[in-house]
Amino acid sequence: MTSSDHIQWFRSAAPYINAFRKKTFVIALTGEQVRSQLFINLIHDIALCHHLGIRLVIIHGSRLQIDELLQHQGVQSRFHHGIRVSEASSMPTIIQAISQVRHTIDARLSMGLPNTPMSGSEISVISGNFVTGMPLGIIDGVDMQYSGKVRSINSQAIHSLLGDHIVLLSNIGFSRSGESFNLPAEELACQVAISLRAEKLIYFNRDFIRNPDTDQFSTAQCKAYLQQGNLPKSLHSLLSQAIEAVNHQVRRVHILDENLDGGLLQELFTRDGAGMMVTNLFYEGLRKASIDDIGGILELIHPLEQSGALIKRSREQLELEIDYFHVIEKDGMVIACIASIPDPQTPVAEVACVAVHEDFRNAGFGDQLLTAVELEARKQGLTHLYILTTRTSHWFLEKGFSEQGIDFLPASKRQAYNADRGSRVMAKSLTEQG
């Protein structure tokens, strides 16, 4: 990589660094990762994220280490529905294996960032009894004994520690009666993310869905994959947890390739990412418009045309432009729309006809529509979006647009500009925003 490449990468990563500062990320590590030759690099990447101001909670699993230690003692574990039956006689060994994994992670994080300009910088890691567990009980006649599930998370205590410290949680929960329960790490990570209202929940796995068209999936799409019944067990579990997390206001869940060196940084700080992302930021009714939506769009935009907020569009014009529209549909009604009309001569597109039904305003649909057209514009290689607006300039300023002069407009649009209307020209650079 040349110096120029480094500079360009840093410029493209800067918006992400700024956006993620003081945000809470929950990262779930597997016992297999702790054994991997790539683990030390992953720890360095986690340390870097911490020094960039990301508030980190790390949850680790220990299944591999528990298996090995029990086998070494001649104990054969029983499993029911893929869950270990944690017998009372095995719990000291299970706790020993979990403690060994936590000790390894603690030791690695204590190294900080060696052989870098930040060598010597310290990372404080705190563990504690922040998780209350409860027994799974009897399932299909099988007593799961000391295999448990999450009862509660002391999110207030965790929040008070984040920023100055990384919080490290083992896959174990303590009951109010002093018992310890072996918890599924992926479920624990999900519940911690929900409790903390985390910005991101990050899993690592050997398998994830590879789609050449997109790396972003809604919960509805994930449910469809689960219903197909042919997913690897580990991915089935992670998708189930991802759905649970997103449905409880975790904004994004990422599933990354555990064998990809640098995958965490690539996913967080580059446009293309490195795995799959589950999010409902794209409302499940958001889609490309079709010719059948014209009546609904006309009905939606008519009040805004009457008030002068939008320029009047005829049915004929809409028919010509319908391929440039996205809509959000709810119960068969178009409740929001947006158009992104590319200029044939320059790598820019005009954002137009942004409208949300009055009954659904302040619900975030405008944000989702704008995000959708930004993603599409980036895929098309466009460099800028712009809009002509008379009443919503402040909203677009909040979304990263800035005011420009008339000269910014493409030649054809500049010639058609209506000075009497006095629209402001707002533009957003797609290359700078990542």
Concise structural overview:
This protein is an alpha/beta fold and 434 residues long.
Explained architecture:
There is one protein chain. The strands form six sheets. Strands 5-10-2-1-13-15-16-14 form an eight-stranded mixed sheet, with helices on both faces. A seven-stranded mixed sheet has the order 17-18-19-20-21-23-22, sandwiched between helices. The protein has a two-stranded antiparallel ribbon with strand order 3-4. By secondary structure, the chain is of the alpha/beta class. Strand 20 (348-356), helix 13 (365-379) and strand 21 form a beta-alpha-beta unit. Helix 4 packs across helix 5 (91-109), helix 7 packs parallel to helix 9 (233-247) and helix 8 packs antiparallel against helix 9 (233-247). It has helices at residues 3-20, 31-35, 39-51, 63-72, 91-109, 155-161, 185-196, 219-228, 233-247, 263-269, 294-307, 315-321, 365-379, 393-398, 411-415, 430-433; strands at residues 24-29, 55-60, 79-80, 83-84, 124-126, 131-135, 138-139, 142-143, 148-153, 165-170, 172-174, 180-182, 200-205, 216-217, 252-257, 275-278, 286-288, 325-330, 333-342, 348-356, 384-389, 402-404, 424-429. The chain has 16 helices and 23 strands. It is elongated, with a radius of gyration of 25 Å. The model has no long low-confidence stretch (mean pLDDT 89). It starts with a helix and ends with a helix. The chain has two domains: 3-278, Acetylglutamate kinase-like (Carbamate kinase, 3-Layer(aba) Sandwich), CATH 3.40.1160.10; 286-433, Gcn5-related N-acetyltransferase (GNAT) (Aminopeptidase).
